[in-house]
Amino acid sequence: MKIKTLTAALACALPVTGAFAAALDRSGQSMSAFLQPGNYAEVGMSILDPEVSGKEAGEAAATGRDVNDIADDYHFYNFAIKMQPTEHFSFGLLYDQPFGAKASFSGDNVFVANSADTVLGLLPTSAIGGTEGGTEVEVESHNLSAVFGFQPNENWNIYAGPVYQTVKGDVKLRGNAFSLYNGYDADIDETEGWGWLAGVAFQIPEIALKISATYRSEIDHDANIAENIAVLDGLTANPALLGALAGAPPVISNRVALALAANGESGKTTITTPQSVNLDLQTGIMANTVAFAQIRWVDWSNFSLQPVKFGAVSEAVGPLVGKPNGFNLVEYSDDQISVNAGVGRKFNDQWSGSLSVGWDSGAGEFVSVLGPTEGYWNVGLGAQFSPAPNYFVQAGVKYFWLGDAKGQTGSQAGTEDYWGEFEDNNAIAYGLKLGYRF
Q1: Which residues form a coiled coil (predicted)?
Q2: Which end of the chain is more exposed for a tag (fewer CB within 10 A), N or C?
Q3: Strand partners, 184
Q4: DSSP states of 354-367 as a string?
Q5: Does residue 42 contact residue 33 with C-beta atoms inside 8 Å?
Q6: So what's the pLDDT on residue 93?
Q7: What confidence score (pLDDT) does residue 17 get?
Q8: Which DSSP string corresponds to 160-219?
């Protein structure tokens, strides 16, 4: 049961491991390509087809209108090359797209702007303008890791290296759920940052045993975010509209005045993508068969996004919703833990396959309405065809049962208030990978 003839054929047999994880996590940031024996290269693509729908609930329970499918299809890529110039030293370049989001709201609900929307229940947004359409979010990231490995013997591999990362995104908040932020736009210019990774792997080739643990650091980004708040821009351009607030209690009119002043704030926003740990386990259990497990932890509970203008205005109006220090555009209450486990089997020199089940904890029952799911269960099938010993084609499919969640706006985070319930949702992910040994 030599590792070069067995686990080399099965180690990557399911190319859609991450796909739809908690919060913004997508690729799973696998190190498996770097831990392949000898010289190795691969390129892969994953496609995700989710369905996430719900209904108004919580503060909008009186209307209870449907929230149609908000989750857009998207795809992401990865590639890797690993070189083994000597018996004791290796080098690799790994590219993936670790974090992402894509969603858009439509229909008639509190997440879509309409003529009946008001600010603080007093000022019609239709008189201000700039609040058409539905809530949308799109986030894209790219990672390039340079990894250097030292193998003192055939059992141990110690590795580390720098990580270059870019992030960009676009957020549009629409609908009565966002009150003063109905019509808020944030365009996050592509920004870059540097981090690092380090890990250790242990293997016993005779029994196809391989264990690895990899830590990835946080990465800070100083981002330029172009922000517009349509309601406040409209009030600034036409102060006469403030007359609609004349009958409001002084505490409300005073806070709106402070928000108008804060609307002029600008500057760079620090975005910190989270640290994570991956633990990969694999062992032979019988001839031509291995069992495997991948465990991942991501520190989402310390992640938040508060653009400069958004944050300044939130401090002005926060006391109205019990948040005297303001609130974030996006935050998560829990860390993510995910597990993917299964078996792989080599049927003959050309064909092998795998079966897996997966679980993801999610990042909290109450989550941002921009990504309203709480973890998942999934089942996956993978197959590999090797026309020759030195190259192969892999394909995989996974079906996800997405966890029910309650969708919150930023001002509701940390409370049990929410605007929507999203239940009985699912996703299908497809993956394709080409690998070459040289």
Answers
A1: none
A2: C
A3: 173, 229
A4: EEEEEEE--S-SEE
A5: yes
A6: 98
A7: 60
A8: EEEEEEEEEEEEEE-SGGGGGGTTEEEEEEEEEEEEEEEEEEEEEGGGTEEEEEEEE--E
For residues 259 and 155, give the distance between their C-alpha atoms in angstroms, rounded to a whole number. Answer: 61
Residue ranges making up the domain that contains 364: 54-67+101-382+405-422
DSSP secondary structure of 274-305:
PPEEEEEEEEEEETTEEEEEEEEEE-GGG-EE
Examine residue 17 and state whether it is found in any structural domain, yes or no.
no
pLDDT at residue number 411: 95
Torsion 24-26-28-30 (CA) sign: negative
Q: Name the residue among 430, 435, 302, 421 with its Cα closest to residue 57.
A: 421
Whole-number pLDDT of residue 3: 45
Angle at 46 between CA 43 and CA 48, to 5 degrees: 170
Q: Return d(Cα 394, Cα 404) in angstroms, integer.
A: 32
pLDDT of residue 265: 92
pTM of the model: 0.94
Q: How many domains does the chain have?
A: 1
250-262 vs 230-237: helix axis angle to the nearest 10?
Answer: 100
Cα→Cα distances 413→113, 199, 323, 417, Å: 22, 35, 10, 8
Would you give the DSSP letter of residue 369?
T
Res 2: pLDDT: 47
With beta carbons less than 8 A apart as the criterion, state whether 219 and 171 touch. Answer: no
User: Which whole-number Å values give the CA distances from 248 to 64, 122, 179, 329, 411, in the listed order?
Assistant: 28, 8, 15, 26, 21
pLDDT of 389-431, one tens digit each?
Answer: 999 999 999 999 999 999 999 999 999 999 999 999 999 999 9
Dist. CA 378–CA 359, nearest whole Å? 6
d(CA 350, CA 14): 16
pLDDT for residue 13: 52
Sheet strand arrangement including 54-56: 66-67, 54-56, 420-422, 405-408, 366-368
pLDDT at position 1: 39
Tell me whether residue 314 is in a domain: yes
Q: Is residue 240 part of a domain?
A: yes
pLDDT given at position 16: 62
Please state the length of the chain. 438
